[in-house]
Amino acid sequence: MERLVVDPVSRIEGHLRIEADFENGFIKDAFSSGTSVRGIELIVQNRDPRDIWAYVQRICGVCTTVHALTSVRSVEDALNIRIPRNAHLIREIMNEIQFVQDHVIHFYHLHALDWVDVVSALSADPNETSRIAQSISDWPKSSPGYFKDVQNKVKRVVESGQLGIFANGYWGHEAYKLPPEVNLLAVAHYLEALDWQREVIKIHTILGGKNPHPHYVVGGMATPLDINSDNGIHAERLLHISQLIDEAREFVNKVYIPDLKAIGSFYKTWTYGGGLQNYLTYGDFSTGDIRDVELFRMPRGVILNGDLSTIHEIKPDDPEQIKEFIDRSWYTYDGATTGGKHPYVGETTLKYTGPKAPYKNLNTNDKYSWLKSPRWKNEPMEVGPLARMLVGYASGKEEFVNIVNSTLKELDVPVAALHSALGRTVARGLETVLIANWMRNDMDELLANLKNGDQTSFDKTKWDPKTWPKTAQGVGLMEAPRGALGHWIDIENGLTKNYQAIVPSTWNASPRIDNNNVGAYEASLRGTPVKDPNQPIELLRVIHSFDPCLACAVHLTDLENDKTTEIKIG
Amino acid sequence: MSKVKTVFQTALERGLSRRRFLQMCTALAATLGLEVSQSDTVVQALETKPRVPVIWLQMQDCTGCSESFIRSTHPKVESVLLDLISLEYSEVLAAASGHNLETSRQNVLEKYHGEYLLVVEGSVSLNEDFVTIGGVSSKELLIESAKGAMAIITYGTCSTWGGLAAAKPNPTNAVAVSDIIKDKPIIHVPGCPPIAEVMTGVVGHFITFGTIPELDHQKRPKAFYRHRIHDKCNRRAYFDAGLFAESFDDEGAKQGYCLYKLGCKGPTTYNSCAEMRWNGGVSYPIQSGNPCIGCSEENFWDNGPFYTRMATIPGTQTTINPETVGIYAAGATVAGIAAHATVTAVKKNKQEKENVSVEVNN
Known about the structure:
The structure holds two protein chains of two kinds. By secondary structure, chain A is an alpha+beta fold. Helix content of chain A is about 40%, strand content about 15%. The longest helix of chain A is centred in the middle third of the chain and has 33 residues, at about 235-265. In chain A, strands 1-2-3 form a three-stranded antiparallel β-sheet. Chain A has a three-stranded antiparallel β-sheet with strand order 10-8-12. A three-stranded antiparallel β-sheet of chain A has the order 13-14-15. Chain A folds into two domains: about 35-80 and about 275-420 and about 460-525 and about 540-570, Cytochrome-c3 Hydrogenase, chain B; about 100-275, no CATH class. Chain B is an alpha/beta fold. Chain B folds into two domains: about 50-225, NADH:ubiquinone oxidoreductase-like, 20kDa subunit (Rossmann fold, 3-Layer(aba) Sandwich); about 230-350, Cytochrome-c3 Hydrogenase, Chain A, domain 2, CATH 4.10.480.10. Chain B has helices spanning about 5-15, 20-30, 40-50, 65-70, 75-85, 100-110, 140-145, 155-160, 195-210, 220-225, 235-240, 250-255, 275, 335-360; strands at about 50-60, 85-90, 115-120, 125, 130-135, 135, 150-155, 175, 185-190. In chain B, a hairpin with a 2-residue loop joins β5 (about 130-135) and β6. Chain B starts with 6 loop residues before the first helix and ends with a helix. The interface between A and B is large, with 110 and 106 residues.
């Protein structure tokens, strides 16, 4: 048996290390480790709860809006603030464009190079690429000359000897199955998507002032809605947003989805990377208030062991349902080295027991990660697009059922095929279509409200901390691009007493509790074939299908105030 | 090194017409704040410089700076990646992972000693337990990568000042790059994140002019960090008139009144937000109704709370006391505007003199 190490795993957010035991051409077992920690939850303690969104937003600059949104939701839950309808719509639109932009970037810039051979595109016939492009979409940039230009760009970069971001890829690996013409198509859209992503995200800039890291406010949004003020969000600003929404949808429907299906059709026999088949989603995108779970366009629930006939109910306040364990993580709980805690009583005391750097291998028989291990009723869960699509599908939501069924039919695969790396990637694309549609609906509703004279976006009744109770607890839940996200806040005397975040990539990338209770990454890698251990492209394929976000996953450190001295510094 | 081509050659070979190349240079000149006539200099410089190899390290970061970088509208990020620089090591964008990616970094260290740019995003932990990349601590990775760099750019507040991880109580002993590296030219580009076009503008300056941009006493490029946001704010006229928003969503907030009473840190924050604005000039936080949180300033995370107004406004407190001046006192402030302007100018001159002396001492 051979130990394979991939560190750093690139084309992700953050610092992820995978160690895998490799035998007879397959991964027998794998260990997922987060190797960096900042201690944000400790840093936010004793600060103004209205400020926390900005601190925790910096958990992640890729999903750059979701932690801020979850944070303000947690404070609003604690203080029982109901935000105005327009504020809800603005937040929805910002989250929706975040999803759409983030998923497209993931597909082209983070994931595609596991399926697309850039160098192979050099030998493509641009005429044939053009024919293929026009057969799958009416996207206008599809002439033979256009693809010839793209091919020349790639050629010059390759021939210059300065490959830059394409240096040392696994080009020519036999795991690449696309014909050169489809590779060229994907490379052209890699470059187009680079342009597109920076345009459509301007929605954040108009509504939240900037991107990355747009602004939020507890109690609503500070966005100055006023169609007759030169300093307000008036017709020019609103129509700019409207246009960007249409451009976002057009790219999704005419470029992303056709590419996804075209590429997917060449890989549908590569059925690896399924893993746990336990799925969890908090649900989101309410057509009412976020407290109205029954109005969620994306439903809440848990699926166990791939059984789509039963949706289990999630109770985020139940101390027995969601717990974070530290059995294989570099922490202690009340001095003990194992155990699980619900986030309301959570604790994070850093205690590194791994090898001293520089090291070759982690001691994976002991503790090996800065990520904790969240579990639902002690079971490991997969969160993210596949979980959401399957819960929506199993719930019988019409939009979900229709888009899943028609795609399965097109690709000529059964629903069970979704339990795979490729299934995850397809699910991400399908939910992008749904969310982009909702974004249009939400914008139309916002315009209608403004037309009817409702320009309110902020509720100030609980802004002043003097109006708050002495103590309050709240939870903010949402679906972020990478999966179920929850923040739990404990407020005392107007300050943040304790703050806990359980983040999508913590669920997915978590270390095991024991060999029978492993996280989603580790489970999905077991049994994956690796042709050449020096070029583990298959491993990257599986890991990238989750869209890892490690700075999110290792958000950590919530120490009780009286325990801060336990941290060893220096 | 004969294989290394100039930016212009590369652009031509990539099928960029001379006309488009000139357009790109003009856009770059605009970003750098140059007159259009000066874009000739840009053209000439790019015609004779090779694509500069770049190692981009991510330490205790959130990837927000990388994300901001790829939002650049002028020059477009595709041009930056394929025409200006050769991004040889990047955890976000590189095709290669693990061993192959590390090989790319080693290649740059050997092949381009003294000729590559080192970019750092994120703070560095002095404790090797808290951050390792490829099994190596962040501090060692920085020291090794800095040795052969011709210069270092610290993108973002974390690598420039320590940033979020270094906020109290700094649980992981996080520090800035300049706390560790003392013997290299360092360009500080703070902001959480910095504006995209500021990021590409700094690289563009370096490559275009072959020099480090002129820096202030805190090593920030003067082209982008010379003024306070307050100095060029779109709500400034209302500050001078003594008109302040009292609550988000009140009439004043919508009409563009000053956000100072809602905690705005614009008066103490040096950055280009008000001038260049974000994402291709679309808006910036204050324009969109939000008080500035001062994200490009040292220790800004510990200078809050964000929604509490400052006790005094540096350089302006002699002219207006927003506690006493309101809508009905607007008339009384007319005289104050001139005085205010004088104070600001005096302060600026004083600071620039200080900068000069600091630079001489160095």
